[in-house]
């Protein structure tokens, strides 16, 4: 089973166990909203523009509401579980390339909003995939950082690459060192700073600004 499919199955199981009203780390969203978001991304790509573009956010939100009304929570979870849908199913490798990180982050959005959560111990191959994708995409995720950032990976399998540098903020300005496992670093760079188990070192003011920055895609 691919990493994307494994995360898809895991979040589907968690949806079913927690129910539609469970909280998530996505501001204002319940599990029901998150399930609708995942279905919208795959099956209504023309309506997904509002995920990144504020001018289209109203349209995207309207389509998301319509999906909830049409399918209900159980129907949406079935669609998530049965995926990938849309062109993700048609183009070989697209699901694994695009959805591995997406489903990992949203699975954690649901897990970490519940009481008593703990970080998962990830399979080494998934850990390496996350680090490889993060190393390639961190500069974009950190583009709105007000300070420079250096990412330090810990817990890597022997022989794996252990460090990446992503420059953000004004040239020559302060830098913050962010240390954690690949999954925790991904969550931090994806905008889940408050809920990522990482260590931040640097000027206290720079650290505070980075914690509040609008990071992510």
Order of helices and strands: HHHHHHEEEHEH
Query: What fraction of the residues are assigned to beta strands by DSSP?
Result: 5-15%
Could you say which overall geometry the principal axes of the C-alpha atoms support?
A: globular
> What's the count of strands?
4
Average pLDDT metric: 88
Low-pLDDT stretches: none
Q: State Rg.
A: 18 Å
**Largest sheet entry:** 4 strands, mixed
Number of domains: 2
- Provide a count of the helices: 8
Kindly state the percentage of residues in helix.
40-55%
| Cα-to-Cα separation, first versus last residue | 26 Å
- Order of strands side by side in the largest beta sheet? 2-1-3-4
InterPro entries: CHP03085, DinB/YfiT-like, Maleyloyr_isom
3D architecture notes:
With 217 residues, the protein is α+β, with helices and mostly antiparallel strands. It folds into 2 domains: 3-111, no CATH class; 124-212, Nonspecific Lipid-transfer Protein, Chain A (2-Layer Sandwich), CATH 3.30.1050. It has 8 helices and 4 strands. The protein has helices spanning 3-18, 31-43, 57-82, 87-90, 94-111, 124-141, 182-189, 204-212; strands at 148-153, 163-166, 175-180, 199-202. Strands 2-1-3-4 form a 4-stranded mixed sheet. Helix 1 (3-18) crosses helix 3, helix 2 packs across helix 3 (57-82) and helix 6 packs parallel to helix 7 (182-189). The longest helix has 26 residues, at 57-82. It is globular and about 50 Å long. The model has no long low-confidence stretch (mean pLDDT 88).
């Amino acid at each position: 089973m691919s990493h994307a499919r494994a995360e898809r199955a895991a979040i589907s199981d968690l949806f079913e166990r927690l129910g539609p009203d469970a909280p998530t780390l996505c501001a204002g969203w319940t599990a029901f909203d998150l399930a609708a978001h995942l279905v919208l991304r795959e099956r209504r790509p023309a309506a997904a523009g509002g995920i990144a573009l504020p001018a289209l956010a109203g349209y995207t939100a309207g389509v998301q509401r319509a999906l909830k009304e049409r399918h209900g929570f159980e129907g949406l979870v079935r669609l998530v579980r049965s995926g990938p849908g849309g062109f993700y199913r048609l183009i070989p490798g697209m699901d694994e390339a695009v959805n591995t990180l997406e489903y990992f982050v949203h699975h954690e959005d649901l897990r970490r909003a519940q009481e008593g959560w703990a970080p998962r111990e990830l399979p080494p191959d998934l850990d390496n995939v996350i680090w490889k994708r993060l190393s390639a995409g961190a500069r974009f995720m950190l583009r709105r950082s007000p300070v420079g950032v250096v990412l330090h990976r810990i817990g890597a399998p022997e022989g794996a690459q252990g460090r990446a540098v992503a420059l953000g903020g004004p040239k020559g300005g302060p830098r913050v060192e962010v240390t954690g496992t690949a999954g925790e670093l991904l969550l931090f760079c994806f905008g889940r700073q408050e809920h990522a188990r990482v260590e931040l070192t640097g000027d206290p003011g720079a650290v505070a600004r980075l914690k509040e920055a609008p990071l992510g895609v």
